[in-house]
């Protein structure tokens, strides 16, 4: 599996970028928003990648951050959402916007993405509302993958096995991370802190994703 590519841009198309890695060109498909961030031909670039494998197709998709890659993988787990639809949603909303829309049940924002109908948008929100906090707990938008040193040979890095799920973190750390995630979603510090404190009191050993999910339920409109 190919988890990250670092090399030199050869060409930028409408939906992909061609990256030279030690003399081999890799076509990496990206959203419009990501393509706008990719430098021009001759410049160094590094992207986290997800490899789609089918009987008649091998296709790479590129993302500037790990959290955006995880959102892509999560979106593709929804029935009716393929790679093209996932990129359309991420391109329209960005990773933070996707998390905000799912957390708030705002399927209209998801529907605004090109080619996404109302039924698909509702499925995205309904199927991912319990899974989204785990991605949100990664800490917001991670730093963009650093470009390779142009003095060294560009390298292609294989995906490494995901680390084992961590044990429950201390409550104070989980609360801080949950507050940060809720702040990224637009909640006021006071209401976020109140919800996190209540959720933490009900489950003192809760992990960050558990706290985020519990706080979102407390903050959801009643009625």
UniProtKB/TrEMBL annotation:
- What is the protein's name according to its record? Holliday junction branch migration complex subunit RuvA
Q: Which UniProt keywords apply?
A: ATP-binding, Cytoplasm, DNA damage, DNA recombination, DNA repair, DNA-binding, Helicase, Hydrolase, Nucleotide-binding
Upper lineage: Bacteria, Pseudomonadati, Pseudomonadota, Alphaproteobacteria, Rhodobacterales
Instruction: Report the source organism.
Output: Marivita hallyeonensis
Question: Which CDD domains does the UniProt record give?
Answer: UBA_RuvA_C (cd14332)
UniProt key word DNA repair: yes
Q: Where is this region: Domain III?
A: 172-223
Spell out the residue ranges making up region: Domain I.
1-64
In its keyword annotation, does this UniProt entry include Transit peptide?
no
Subunit info here reads: Homotetramer. Forms an RuvA(8)-RuvB(12)-Holliday junction (HJ) complex. HJ DNA is sandwiched between 2 RuvA tetramers; dsDNA enters through RuvA and exits via RuvB. An RuvB hexamer assembles on each DNA strand where it exits the tetramer. Each RuvB hexamer is contacted by two RuvA subunits (via domain III) on 2 adjacent RuvB subunits; this complex drives branch migration. In the full resolvosome a probable DNA-RuvA(4)-RuvB(12)-RuvC(2) complex forms which resolves the HJ.
Annotated InterPro entries: DNA_helicase_Holl-junc_RuvA_I, Hlx-hairpin-Hlx_DNA-bd_motif, NA-bd_OB-fold, RuvA, RuvA_2-like, RuvA_C, RuvA_C_sf
Q: Which family does it belong to?
A: Belongs to the RuvA family.
Gene for this chain? ruvA
């Amino acid at each position: 599996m190919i988890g990250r590519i670092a090399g030199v841009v050869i060409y930028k198309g409408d939906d992909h970028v061609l990256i030279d890695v030690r003399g081999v060109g890799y076509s990496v498909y990206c959203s419009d928003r990501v393509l706008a961030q990719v430098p021009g031909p001759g410049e160094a670039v590094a992207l986290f990648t997800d490899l789609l494998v089918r009987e008649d197709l091998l296709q790479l998709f590129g993302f500037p951050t790990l959290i955006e890659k995880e959102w892509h993988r999560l979106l593709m787990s929804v029935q009716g959402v393929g790679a093209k639809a996932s990129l359309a949603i991420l391109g329209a909303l960005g990773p933070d916007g996707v998390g905000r829309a799912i957390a708030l049940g705002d399927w209209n924002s998801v529907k605004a993405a090109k080619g996404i109908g109302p039924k698909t948008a509702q499925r995205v929100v309904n199927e991912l509302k319990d899974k989204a906090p785990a991605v949100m707990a990664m800490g917001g938008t991670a730093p963009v993958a650093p470009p390779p040193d142009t003095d060294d040979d560009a390298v292609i890095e294989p995906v490494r096995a995901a680390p084992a799920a961590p044990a429950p973190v201390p409550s104070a750390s989980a609360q801080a991370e949950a507050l940060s995630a809720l702040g990224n979603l637009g909640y006021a510090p006071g209401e976020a802190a109140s919800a996190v404190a209540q959720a933490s009191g009900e489950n003192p050993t809760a992990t960050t994703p558990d706290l985020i999910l519990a706080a979102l339920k407390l903050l959801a409109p009643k009625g």
